[in-house]
Write a structure and sequence with these properties.
The protein is α/β, with parallel strands linked by helices. The protein has 13 helices and 16 strands. α5 runs antiparallel to α6 and α5 packs across α10. It is flat.
Length: about 450
């Protein structure tokens, strides 16, 4: 077995008969007696209360490399006089499968069954202490998040810190955030939006999914494992109302989430079940297609597609909550979007003027100028097309004051539904319905929850 000897003294200990030479000689004798091959002697002359000792840091690197089999010390306090450091050190040794021997403390010798037991007790204590610290930290972070306080890290695009360290809207970059959301709704493509704003698709997706932009804080998305140091990404997070101001409206954010959800779905299919994934069994499991039935993924109970869909559609069309479909269209959102797009076009025009001035001063080449102008032209064209789309929507909604009966139209579509219509109806129901809960099968009874 390869052994490393670690010895430490503080200056006042030189008079106590435990000098470095004394410790090293005793440890060397122990290694010879037990047939250990001595790899290295590491030593420190410093207080045991300082965890940043040169020799101690070197020892930790050797442990990480697993370059030896057993650590020999004169007594355990040579490692550290700080209890938590000692406990954590013991745990690191155990994780690296390295034995630990304190020659003046026979009970601390993991080469024997009794010593191993004592060692494991140290490890349990260390793990317990680390978990206690982790719980205190989590409790503090939870309290801060609940109070709407930013947890730190990189401030999201569109925001900045003021002199009091508060998160406030950055007037310049917040326009980019608004444009990213509007551009995505216009192009229906993350990759296309990424090209326009010269960002990676992952960056655009992060912005579009980030509830920080509607004034919320997400807590618990990342979780550190206190033993392995690995970071786990949780699917479920807790949402708190933040103290910062929202940049994006709830309506726009929700529309973006729905569009991204639809993008993840499979290609259109004539046999698509209308309520797959949103139909829920009484046991709580979701129901999916199984031949001509919906089948629960948990209890495996089934119900005929025709029976389930006919009953749900009949109940849906009689819901009073559907009356919102016949409400008079609201144009404020479209006018606000148009205003934001106009601001973005003006920003592009300012950039164009800036590059022309730089070229006039011979600070950029003609090639660089043409590249920049072409890029700005492309971005401006997208925004102008978006404005044209908004103008058409506003015109369509105001061209006639006749109030359409959308519920009646929906009923007619469902009554005359063909197989080729099923995918579009599936998408529509995903936008309209949050969940359809089957309360019982015989006779069938359901609860419909709208978005």
């Amino acid at each position: 077995m390869k052994a490393i000897i670690y010895a430490r003294v503080s200056t006042e200990m030189q008079e106590e008969g435990r000098s470095l030479e004394f410790q090293i000689r005793k440890c060397e004798d122990f290694c010879k007696m037990n047939g250990y091959k001595l790899k290295e002697i590491i030593q420190d002359v410093e207080s045991g209360g300082n965890d940043n000792r040169e020799g101690f840091l070197k020892l930790q690197k050797e442990i990480q490399k697993k370059s030896f089999d057993v650590l020999v010390v004169y007594e355990s306090s040579r490692i550290s006089r700080v209890t938590l450091t000692m406990l954590n050190f013991v745990l690191e040794l155990q994780k690296s499968n390295i034995k630990f021997v304190s020659i003046s403390q026979s009970e601390i010798n993991t080469t024997t069954p009794t010593g191993m037991l004592f060692f494991q007790i140290f490890a349990v204590l260390a793990d317990y202490e680390r978990k206690q610290i982790s719980m205190r930290i989590k409790s503090n972070k939870w309290a801060r998040a609940k109070a709407g306080i930013w947890q730190g890290g990189t401030v999201p695009l569109g925001y900045k810190k003021d002199e009091q360290n508060n998160i406030v809207i950055d007037p310049e970059t917040s326009e980019d955030v608004i444009s990213i959301f509007n551009t995505y709704l216009s192009t229906r493509s993350i990759s296309e939006t990424a090209k326009i704003f010269k960002r990676k698709p992952a960056s655009i997706q992060w912005i579009l999914k980030n509830e920080f932009y509607i004034g919320n804080l997400m807590y618990g998305r990342k979780e550190n494992n206190i033993n392995t140091g690995e970071v786990k990404i949780n699917k479920e997070v807790t949402i708190f109302k933040g103290n910062h101001e929202a940049i994006i409206s709830d309506e726009v954010f929700k529309e973006v989430q729905q569009q991204m959800l639809f993008k993840q779905r499979v290609l259109p299919s004539e046999n698509k079940l209308l309520f797959t994934g949103i139909l829920e069994c009484p046991c709580g499991g979701k129901m999916f297609k199984n031949n001509t039935n919906y089948r629960c993924e948990k209890c495996k109970k089934t119900i005929s597609v025709n029976k389930a869909e006919n009953f749900i559609i009949h109940k849906l069309l009689n819901l009073k909550e559907l009356e919102f479909l016949n409400e008079k269209p609201k144009l404020e959102k479209y006018l606000k979007d148009k205003e934001n797009l106009d601001k973005q076009i003006k920003k592009i025009d300012r950039e164009r003027t800036k590059y022309l001035e730089l070229f006039a001063k011979e600070l950029i080449s003609e090639l660089e100028l043409n590249e920049k102008l072409e890029e700005l032209k492309s971005r401006k064209q997208v925004f102008e097309e978006s404005i044209a789309d908004i103008d058409r929507i506003i015109e369509d909604k105001t061209i006639s004051e006749e109030k359409l009966d959308n519920i009646k139209i929906l009923k007619e579509v469902l009554e005359n539904m063909e197989d080729t219509d099923r995918y579009n109806l599936f998408l529509m129901f995903r936008m309209l319905i949050k969940k359809v809960k089957i309360k019982k099968y015989q006779p069938i009874e359901v609860l419909i929850l709208l978005n």
